[in-house]
Amino acid sequence: MQADDPSLKRIEPPTLKWHEKVYVPTIIQGLAVTGRHILGVAVASKQVTVQYPEEQHVPSPNYRGVHRLNKDEQGRVKCVACMLCATACPAHCIDIVGTTAPPEWPDREKYPASFVIDELRCIYCGMCEEACPVEAIELTGLYDITGLSREEMIYDKAKLLSVYDVTRDAEPMRYTQVPAEASAPTRILPSLSH
Ligand code: SF4
Ligand code: SF4
Prior knowledge:
flat; Alpha-Beta Plaits
């Protein structure tokens, strides 16, 4: 598009009035917000800080923290090494090496021999979780992980499975219950039915 294109809509910056130029009313408004928060803490006990680590912050249910690799009923890793999560990951921080599943696992062709996530490179977007067809990878409410080196923050399969072990009671797998409507026959959209 050219700069002189007639379809371009030009917007002029608003002209500030004198009281807007001195910013005093805006500063007063800002101080009023600060005062409201001070009064909320002092009078109504509405403090939002916690005495960490003695007191633990409980994140909201949709908080996206450290990953875990889920296990199935037999204690096996649920992942089938389809690579969809690694493909969907915008930060390219998932590295999977798939291998042929043992004969005693007839329900799948592959499983991950190695599964590594760089937790420092991750942007915690949740795309891996969305992409997984078997609910094998989930982001948990864990937020207070630390490490003394970059290597410590690169989680391998064993570590990701151990996150499942420590979080499964507090955070059951989100999709273990099949929604009632999922049992209804799939309806084909009119535009796709011919
Ligand atoms: S949360 Fe996002 S950035 Fe992190 S591993 Fe998953 S897809 Fe990649
Ligand atoms: S975690 Fe899910 S999406 Fe990723 S490789 Fe395993 S099965 Fe596929």
